[in-house]
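Design request, tokens follow.
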């Protein structure tokens, strides 16, 4: 076996998602398993170079994980010819310019979403990357969750017949920060800093709907800032200027309708933090992060609405669990492996910067729909 070292500049890994999912559970997990076997006698050995703005945080993170390379100078890192890939998990407002620099430096790009603060910027990144001839990918982690992989298996197997509708519920209560510490950083709730649940979650819903059910043809959304005052990391109150809840209806190619509620001001009364119910002519399913339950047409009970009598049926017990039928790796790690195979083994990969731009587009049109109080068509975009 030949071991090939791959130097990856990882920007923004001092943050929660960049640290836990991308550094620890993806790149370091690959190292723990001995690297990524490409199947041709080559094993890729990822060597992360940590990049960020806070020197003390980078040093502490490097020491914690036994890493030797870190820097606060992005330009110097990108100028290093040994760096093959640039990864970005920064706050949204800082991402676009950093990606432009990395593309100009000829680095392959792998990035969190949204890729830019607006559609024009997202398309510009995709066009720059294509012109530079580099490989580029965008994190679309929900597709690799066990629950959605099971849902995809049902779709591919024709379980649903004609799909009629998709109902999604996502969210949880994010504490205001006054008497209990908030679970999310304060910039999430300031529009001027790139915050807002539409900007954060609609890119996810775009690729989930697109990949599983069909392209989004129109969007009608209503946003809200349910909690107008929150407290930041220093315990100081601030005005929440960004939306913390969004209620969206999406018309899909093929005629199905999706309705997805997203909220950071809702208390969880469901099995998982996100759930999708899919109803079709032949059967229905409810999929979460890990589990998926089904009810086929042949085993659907015949409930009768009678408000004068208590329900005697336990409806949840009438559904059947979908078996795993295999092992599921961490979704972020699984997509990292696919991207690395795309770069070094020419494996197919279509979750690129254009796919990322579609997510930015849906978020932009969702906010516009709410502001104008109307349904808006979602035109297909190309480079």
């Amino acid at each position: 076996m030949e071991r090939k070292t791959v130097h990856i500049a990882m920007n923004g890994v001092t943050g929660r998602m960049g640290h836990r999912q991308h550094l620890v559970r993806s790149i370091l997990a690959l190292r723990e398993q001995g690297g990524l076997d490409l199947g041709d006698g080559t094993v890729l050995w990822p060597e992360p170079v940590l990049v960020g703005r806070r020197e003390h945080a980078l040093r502490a993170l490097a020491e914690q994980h036994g890493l030797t390379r870190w820097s606060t100078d992005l330009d110097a890192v990108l100028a290093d010819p040994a760096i093959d890939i640039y990864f970005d998990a920064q706050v949204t407002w800082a991402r676009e310019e950093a990606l432009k620099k990395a593309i100009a430096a000829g680095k392959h790009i792998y990035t969190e979403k949204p890729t830019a603060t607006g559609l024009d910027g997202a398309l510009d990144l995709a066009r720059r990357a294509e012109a530079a001839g580099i490989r580029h990918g965008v994190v679309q982690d929900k597709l690799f969750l066990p629950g959605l992989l099971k849902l995809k298996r049902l779709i591919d197997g024709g379980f649903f017949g004609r799909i009629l509708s998709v109902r999604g519920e996502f969210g949880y209560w994010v504490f205001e920060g006054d008497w209990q510490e908030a679970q999310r950083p304060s910039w999430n709730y300031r529009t001027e800093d790139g915050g807002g649940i539409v900007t954060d979650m609609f890119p996810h819903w775009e690729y989930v709907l697109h990949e599983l059910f069909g392209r989004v043809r129109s969007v009608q959304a209503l946003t809200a800032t349910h909690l107008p005052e929150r407290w930041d990391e220093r315990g100081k109150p601030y005005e929440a200027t960004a939306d913390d809840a969004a209620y969206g209806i999406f018309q899909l190619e093929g005629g199905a309708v999706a309705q997805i509620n997203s909220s950071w001001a809702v208390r969880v009364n469901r099995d998982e933090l996100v759930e999708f119910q899919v109803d079709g002519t032949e059967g229905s399913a409810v999929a979460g992060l890990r589990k998926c339950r089904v009810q086929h047409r042949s085993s659907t009970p015949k409930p009768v609405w009678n408000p004068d009598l208590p329900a005697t049926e336990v409806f949840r017990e009438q559904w059947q669990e979908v078996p795993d039928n295999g092992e599921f790796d961490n979704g972020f790690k699984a997509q990292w492996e696919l991207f690395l195979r795309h770069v070094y083994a020419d494996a197919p990969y279509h979750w690129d910067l254009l796919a990322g731009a579609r997510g930015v587009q849906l978020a932009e049109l969702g906010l516009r729909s709410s502001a104008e109080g109307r349904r808006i068509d979602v035109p297909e975009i190309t480079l």
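Comment from the thread starter after seeing the answer: thanks! The chain has a mean pLDDT of 96.
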